[in-house]
Design brief:
single chain, alpha/beta, Rossmann fold, D-amino Acid Aminotransferase, Chain A, domain 1, 2 domains, six-stranded mixed beta sheet, five-stranded antiparallel beta sheet, globular, ATP-binding
């Protein structure tokens, strides 16, 4: 395929996701300059509009239709199946990202396995996944406590829901406070990290890093009551100051990024880690969260997001990275 020809790019996103990530608005100008035709497809009209499949590449987030409140379950299933049929009927079209690989990465347990496979040691820095344990649904409190004891999970622990779309979590400090509400979940050891999270956004061969607020340091204290939280209150800007979570008001702090500080994290570590995660997950667009452990300086990778909003990335950087990804994927076929 010659690099001089036009790339035909289709966008198939639920309204809420399109609004948050601002595609195609965020990339339209550069796409015009680079000879990329952008078409927005309404997934609900795939069949009635009889869309001709002459696209080189399509961007989707079809499983987010399950989060559309105005749809019935049957309508959700229909629109998702229509999208899958459209992809399967056009095998030469690049699907960004592969639907099955994307679906698997909405499961937090699967993501944890992927992240663990990508553990590495570079420049004296260990990248690791905190010790974790799956708690199946319906288990009684005594059995859950026995499982944690046998696995030698250290407290405090983060109790996370099994699916990445669920934001409710809890920080538990004692085995005595573990109960049936902890199932189903993924339990993960909590490491102090000076209340800073590093969000890494990946587009194929490129990545960007931004700092975000995180849970403040907590020492081991079996008398501390559990803290119930929404992950968006922890790390999203503009969600307010929560003293039980934050050390200080996030809105009054300066948060760095790889734009303001290119050496915000070790580049050799990130280069290797991004490639390993991309290859292991099969995703081209994804994000992951890193913590720098207070006591050791090692990197704990704690979450993988199959389609983040790339919030905090300047529009010109986002557009340049996105367009380069499209060109790399299409012209490498």
């Amino acid at each position: 395929m010659t690099k001089s020809r036009i790339i035909r790019f289709a966008v198939m996103l639920p309204k809420d996701k399109a609004r948050k990530i601002r595609i195609p608005e965020r990339i339209e100008s550069l796409c015009q300059q680079e000879g990329i035709e952008v078409t927005t497809i309404d997934a609900f009209k795939l069949k009635e509009d009889k869309i001709e499949a002459n696209f080189d590449i399509v961007l989707h987030k079809i499983f987010d239709y399950f989060n559309e409140p105005e749809l019935t379950v049957e309508q959700m299933q229909d629109v998702i199946q229509n999208c899958k049929d459209f992809f399967e009927q056009n095998p030469k079209m690049i699907v960004l990202d592969d639907t099955e690989k994307y679906r698997k990465c909405t499961d937090r347990l699967y993501c944890t396995r992927i992240m663990r496979e990508c553990s590495l040691f570079v420049d004296g820095i260990q990248v690791f996944v905190p010790k974790s344990l799956e708690i199946a649904a319906g288990l009684p409190s005594d059995q859950v406590r026995d499982m944690l004891s046998e696995a030698k999970i250290n407290f405090p622990i983060l109790v996370k829901p099994m699916y990445t779309s669920d934001r409710k979590m809890s920080l538990v400090f004692s085995l005595d406070d573990v109960n049936e509400k902890c199932s189903p979940s993924l339990v993960q050891e909590f490491y102090n990290h000076n209340d800073v999270m590093y969000k890494v956004f990946v587009m194929n061969n490129r990545y960007n890093v931004i700092q975000r607020p995180s849970i403040k340091n907590y020492e081991k204290d079996p008398h501390q009551k559990p803290i119930f939280l929404d992950s968006r209150d922890v790390s999203k800007m503009g969600r307010g100051f929560h003293p039980e979570i934050h050390k200080s008001d996030p809105s009054k702090q300066t948060w760095q990024s790889s734009f303001s500080n290119p050496d915000i994290l070790n580049k050799s570590v990130l280069n290797s880690l991004c490639v390993k995660l991309r290859d292991a997950s099969g995703l081209k667009m994804f994000g992951f969260d890193l913590l720098v452990v207070r006591e050791t300086g090692h990197y704990a990778i704690v979450d993988l997001n199959p389609f983040p909003g790339f919030k905090g990335i300047p529009d010109d950087v986002f557009a340049d990275d996105f367009v380069q990804m499209l060109k790399d994927l299409v012209f490498s076929k």
